[in-house]
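Running low. Invent one:
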Amino acid sequence: MASKLSAVLAAAKSEHRAALIGYLPAGFPTIDGGIAAVKALIEGGCDVVEVGLPHSDPVLDGPTIQTADDIALRGGVRIKDVLRTVAEATTAHPGTPVLVMTYWNPVDRYGVARFAAELAAAGGAGVILPDLPVEESDEWRKAAGEHGLDTVFVVAPSSKDPRLAEVTAAGSGFVYAAAVMGVTGTRAAVGNLAEDLVARTRATTDLPVCVGLGVSNADQAAQVAAFADGVIVGSAFVQRILDAADDDAGLAAVRELAAELAEGVRRR
């Protein structure tokens, strides 16, 4: 049976469009505010949501998400709060897959089996693990499989074709294609390496290939949606909250941007 994540991505494909995947870290701007913000992503039009597990050394994240992670950590966010964020978003919107995006170290320290079991109990659909090599992922993938969780791995423009095949064979749900070399963040133009990376990745797998890093507006979303199965947006949502005058304005800005991006991925 297809996972919830696979089913939602397939449904978007059946509508001849890319899926919209939104990211926000848990605990930002506060724990309760972060839960409300994740719900706002869905209310605005995101098909899939990624909840970030804030990390003190987010080496793959740019300054915008680093700022949000710092705010969340200073606010006392813990893994239990990440799981609560997943649970409340899933309860409010049971049809929307909610993933956790996390570096490996917190999962390893928390306990692999424990994290998988508690994420599944919270209604989570899976995890994105940007820094876990597939060669070292057997323990996680076994635990995830026992609880019906998808495991999404990240590929980059620097990935050679044999490596792409190794990564895509190990993953499930979708493949996260980093559109540009370097850290996350919005950009004036989406990297031109993305389309080639999607084509090379598709040659190795039947999994959907979703593109992240750099998309911040409807035009960019439409550009990426023309060649990818999903468009992933994170820093632009975080920036809307950082720029907002208050919490209510931040939620409104997140909904507004999600709606704009949802229109973008549906353009013909």
